[in-house]
Amino acid sequence: MFSSIDHKKSLLDQQRPLPKYTLRSLQEKILLEWTYHSNAIEGNTLTLNETKVVLEGITVGGKTMREHLEAINHQHAISYLEDWIEKGSELSEWQIRNLHRLVLKGIDDEYAGVYRNQQVFISGAEHVPPPAFRVEEEMKQLIAWYNSEATELHPVERAAILHAKFVGVHPFVDGNGRTSRLLMNFELMKNGYPPVVIKVENRLAYYEALDASHTTNDYSRFTELVAKEAESSLDLYLSVSDFKK
């Protein structure tokens, strides 16, 4: 599954550092698409171009304050991730809570960065997240897995399963999807991969693969979906270099 990804990652590494302005434009493109698609998956109605102007500080008529904040907060959360990676900080419950706090800032401050104290359900999914009293222990187990078994996995597989396990716990009352995709890309970016963008038009396949991983404890289908998008991101970066294959 990962041979093509490893090959393309090697080619990209050979081309680094990419030209300054080329790299900047690539980052701006993929981070805008990441913000747009991640929010659209959760029901935000801003278009790609509307998301762009909101991130530039312009208010879009006919859209809610929440939709504006979701775009702005996501941009801030990405900046936090980049700083987190640059400093070499490790994944921890504290960092995850800080990340979630940014995702819900100004939207639901009462629950921003706070583990849920009530039962939640995932609409359309067979999987039912654990009861609230188990959330803290489940999150500790997630971090323990990340620091032990996960270290033996391919970075793309580790990122995909981190995402899936986190969503399975559903530790917050809201913002779990956005936070899980941020965590997935944290893992990819810290290992030198471009961010993965799960596109809104693939939402059904994405949800079904996630639910399958939770109900069968088999993460292969979801990992394949993430691997496909990881390769797509690598292709984008390679498209500006001398290497195409």
Quick summary of this structure?
By secondary structure, the protein is mainly alpha-helical.
Describe this structure in words.
By secondary structure, this protein is mostly helical. The relative contact order is 0.15. The two termini are 16 Å apart. 62% of the residues lie in helices and 0% in strands. It has a single domain, classed as Fido-like domain (Fic-like fold), CATH 1.10.3290. The chain has helices at residues 3-15, 20-41, 48-55, 65-86, 93-104, 135-147, 155-169, 176-190, 203-216, 220-238.
Q: What is the H-and-E element order?
A: HHHHHHHHHH
State the end-to-end distance. Answer: 16 Å
Number of domains: 1
Note the beta-strand portion. under 5%
Major sheet: none
Estimate the helix proportion, in percent.
Answer: 55-70%
Shape: globular
Mean pLDDT: 95
Query: Treating each run of at least 4 consecutive H or I residues as one helix, how many helices?
Result: 10
By secondary-structure content and strand pairing, the structural class works out as: mainly alpha
Radius of gyration: 18 Å
**Top-tier CATH class:** Mainly Alpha
Keywords: ATP-binding, Cell cycle, Cell division, Nucleotide-binding
Protein name: Cell division protein Fic
Organism: Jeotgalibacillus alimentarius
GO molecular function, one term: ATP binding
